[in-house]
Design brief:
alpha/beta, 16 helices, binds magnesium ion
């Protein structure tokens, strides 16, 4: 069976690596839709190589020859059109930030299988998505390496036997720096992740463990377990991707080299496994796997995320919105790295929670969070 694939965010890190998997598995997957945002030249090149039926881009529609004669649609409406495209089996959400939210809801609403890499979607609207899934609309599988690991550990296991989940965290780009040195780090340093190759936003989020906090919220919704039962452990080598502890005291882990193509391929192939020639894990060559407790004082963003997740309602959407503004402000040199968590915390403290939000409440909380965080970045504006 050939799977018809749509990729939203095909020019980003997840999108490019998904196309690497497709290139190696071209007898099993056909690309029927691509959407990209800023990198139009790469999007056109991808379209000429993979020949999708439809491409969503921020360009004039008379350029379709440059895009392999695909039908062209504009943004942002093109994202939802692709997410619900007739004939598409599997929708990869590889967008960043809140861009993936409406397309994910649309795809699930249309009964699609969604492979989600865009964690802000579950952080913002986990309860809405869980509602759709519990009503039997669509199916959601994770691409994030930690959640893919948990998913793989849970295969064949009774859900009621799950006691705890443990997410591993590399500690990010600054794990060796002192608290004082942390205040002076530059965007260039933050964008150099020690083990994973990822997009800009998520790499900065990894450097202060905001990414891990969001992953805890993501796991809470994906696996329907309270945040009190989700732990984080430091693991600098990024070989053990996460663990599940069962009610009999047994713990299962999933291991692999830090290469996103593996969890991406599993999201495309499950419940099968497809043979490939990716490099294999050689534990003797790696020698040591080490683990340590997380220092919650050193990484305040992690605590902010977990607390926002426990408070629930619109707090996680505010967290995600404020974080996007704060990370962007850091990347353009407006605030130091160490100011990202306080800026998010102040925004959260000013928010009045809506306890069981609908989509409009979530979008309004996001708008409010961005406006509030932006004013904190540039008070004169
Ligand atoms: Mg991850």
């Amino acid at each position: 069976m050939v799977r018809n694939l749509v990729i939203l965010g095909s020019t980003g890190s997840i999108g490019r690596q998904t196309l690497d998997v497709v290139r190696a598995m071209d007898d099993r997957i056909r690309v029927v839709g691509l959407a990209g945002h800023r990198n139009t030249a790469l999007l056109a090149k991808q379209a000429r190589e993979f020949r999708p039926r439809v491409v969503a881009a921020q360009v004039d529609t008379d350029l379709d020859e440059a895009f392999g004669n695909a039908e062209m649609i504009g943004l942002p409406e093109g994202l939802e059109a692709l997410a619900t495209m007739p004939g598409a089996d599997l929708i990869v959400i590889g967008t960043a930030g809140k861009a993936g939210l409406l397309p994910t809801l649309a795809a699930l609403g249309a009964g699609k299988l969604v492979a989600l890499a865009n964690k802000e979607v579950l952080v913002m609207a986990g309860s809405l998505i869980q509602g759709l899934l519990k009503a039997g609309s669509g199916e959601l599988v994770p691409i994030d390496s930690e959640h893919s690991a948990i998913w793989q550990c849970l295969e064949g296991e009774p859900r009621r036997a799950v006691e705890r989940l443990t997410l591993t965290a590399s500690g990010g780009a600054f794990r060796h720096l002192s608290a004082d040195e942390l205040k002076r780090v530059t965007p260039e340093q933050a964008l150099r992740h020690p083990t994973w190759s990822m997009g800009r936003k998520i790499t900065v989020d990894s450097a202060n463990l905001m990414n891990k906090g969001m992953e805890a919220i993501e796991a809470r919704w994906l696996f329907d377990l309270s945040l009190e039962r989700i732990d984080v452990v430091l693991h600098p080598q990024s070989i053990v991707h996460s663990l599940v502890t069962f009610s009999d005291g047994s713990t299962k882990a999933q291991l692999g080299l830090p290469d996103m193509r593996l969890p991406i391929q599993y999201a495309l192939s499950h419940p099968e496994r497809w043979a490939n020639d990716l490099e294999r894990l050689d534990l003797a060559a790696i020698g040591t796997l080490s683990f340590g407790a997380v220092d919650w004082v050193r990484y305040p963003a992690l605590g902010l995320a977990v607390e926002a997740g426990k408070a629930g309602g619109t707090y996680p959407a505010v967290l995600a919105g404020a974080d996007e503004v704060a990370v962007e402000a850091f990347l353009v040199g407006k605030i130091p790295f160490s100011q990202i968590p306080p800026l998010i915390e102040t925004t959260l403290n000013r928010h009045t929670r809506c306890s069981s939000p609908d989509l409009d409440d979530i979008l309004e909380a996001d708008r409010w969070a961005r406006a509030t965080a932006s004013r904190l970045v540039s008070p004169a504006m």
